[in-house]
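Q: I have 430 residues here and want to know how they pack in 3D. Can you give me a structure?
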Amino acid sequence: MNYEDTCDWLFCKTANFEHQGQTGYKAGLNNMLRLDDCYGHPHRDFKCIHVTGTNGKGSVSHTLAAILQSSGYKVGLYTSPHVLDFSERIRINGTPISKDYVVRFVEEGHKQFEAIGCTFFEIATAMAFKYFSDEQVDIAVVEVGLGGRLDSTNIITPILSVITNVSLEHTQILGNTVGQIAFEKGGIIKDGVPVVIGEASPESRRVFVSLAQHHHAPICFAEDEQEIRSATPIADSSVISYETVHWGAFRGELYGTYQIKNTRTILKAVDVLVRLGIVKKQEQVVKEAFANVSKITGLTARWQTVATSPTVICDIGHNIAAWENLGKQLAALKGGKLHIIFGMVSDKDVNGVLALAPKNAIYYFTQPSTHRALPVQRLREAAVRSGLSGDCYATVEEAYAAAQKAAQESDYIFIGGSNYVVSDFLKKGV
């Protein structure tokens, strides 16, 4: 098999939640434990930081990796989903896993994967751990795929666990209440391992405290501390200027009001890493990492400006928690008209997201190229009920072409609603 054939096998011949939804999800660690045994428990060869949460876990994971890399470590980074190519999920010091390694890993193991009945995510996780072991990374930042307790990544024993936040998501799998979902995400809390919580409701806080006490795990809540003195989004330069208590002043290249919460979580996590002796307290390291996280790690599609005149922005926020910030941020844009290319997948709270979308925008409703896509006509019907107006387009490419034609130089074009919408857009090389 070549690389394209290998990716096709991974995506189409295995159970895959990202493409199939709930039918592609298998809860439990039995398969992963069998795989781990087959490969000799490679995750034991390096230190790990484990990250979960409803929103922000990608930004937090990438920035922590950037800080560790700027501290001189050889750093593995495992995240999902990818935006353009499978290899983005598995990186060392920002460089994606080699295509040859992906092909060889699948060729040598596919019969074993089929015999065990492995899912796509189980195979990808085993590949990441084996690759990090083979390449002798010092430390890996491992992002949970879905939930935490029964996620394939949860065979690791990290040096630090991070839970960014909790809100209702994947309720058909994780539970119908914030408390139930907090219990699933809190499943990454391990015996004696410190855990940082970014933000919590009273319900989720009770769950996290109970789990931490059960595991004798030191717990801290980043939102309880006043580390950030001020955070000022600078629109013209698309950065946030921070003044902090212990880390001085620095600029964060990840733009958006929601990134302020992520920064608070990251700084608390770094504080714990300093106390563990993993990193030194160096303001310059933090400054370098926050200012260049995309360059250092390859992060994309977090309020990313990809063109000007008109300004074109994309963001992969896809649930209510994300749009509570995105909606306000879009509505606050100054200048010309706002054009929004918008599509979603069918298992998200479409009505909840649409209720938060700006009413004063021109919408270009579309559907991404995934089997989970919400049909565009159904999306538009729901949007009309929420007071939004716009036309339907069969593909993201067609929607973008229409927006480009209609937009003036001073206008804004935003592409989002789903990771898959942004992926379709960026794949066209815009």
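Q: Anything worth noting?
A: The chain has a mean pLDDT of 93. DSSP finds 17 helices and 17 strands in the chain.
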